[in-house]
Write a structure and sequence with these properties.
mainly alpha
């Protein structure tokens, strides 16, 4: 039996260097073009479409979330309406999570073969917890900048109803983005 290492040193260095390069390039762009200039260049209406697309794509993975949050902060500092930014961003993030929920429902049969005991154990534990408590936990988890695709997959595998997952996830994403937008504006104004 081979043991595969999840700790690929070259891959980790490449990812860290890519993130560092992105942050450096983004800092250079922001030095020469302040956030309000970037927002006015793109147009206010286009900003909301852009941030929706970034949320849909950028919120999907841990590796792309750095670019997403950096762009979100830049747009929020640039003067876009905080409520509209939070609205379109939360819809984009939630649609990305719905995609992972769908993948989780389709992969449930594949996982049961190899990890059947784990899936059964998770399902039994989820059945013991009241759905309202699970919904509160979904809301609280979505208040963190951690990717919600992990929880969406786990809920799909455990058989948690989609209708009960979507509302706390959407509201939590909305509140998270609104808090991030307002905190970034406050921090920028303090500088």
């Amino acid at each position: 039996m081979k043991i595969y290492s999840f700790n690929n040193h070259k891959k980790n260095i490449l990812i860290a260097m890519s993130i560092a390069l992105f942050v450096i390039l983004w800092s250079i762009i922001l030095y020469y073009h302040p956030p309000n200039e970037i927002v006015s260049m793109m147009g206010v209406r286009n900003i909301y479409i852009f941030i929706f697309t970034m949320a849909l794509v950028g919120g999907v993975s841990t590796f792309t979330s750095t670019a997403f949050y950096t762009t979100l902060i830049t747009i929020s500092i640039g003067g876009a309406n905080a409520l509209w930014v939070a609205f379109f961003t939360s819809i984009g993030l939630t649609l990305g999570d719905v995609l992972f929920y769908y993948f989780g429902t389709k992969c449930k049969q594949c996982i049961k073969g190899k990890y059947g005991s784990y899936v059964d154990s998770l399902t039994e534990k989820m059945e013991q917890v009241d759905d309202r408590i699970t919904m509160i936990l979904i809301f609280l988890y979505s208040l963190t900048p951690l990717p919600s695709d992990i929880i969406a997959i786990a809920l799909a595998i455990a058989g948690f109803p989609f209708k009960k997952m979507i509302v706390p996830l959407l509201v939590g994403n909305f509140v998270l983005i609104l808090i991030l937008v307002e905190l970034s504006r406050l921090g920028y104004n303090l500088i």
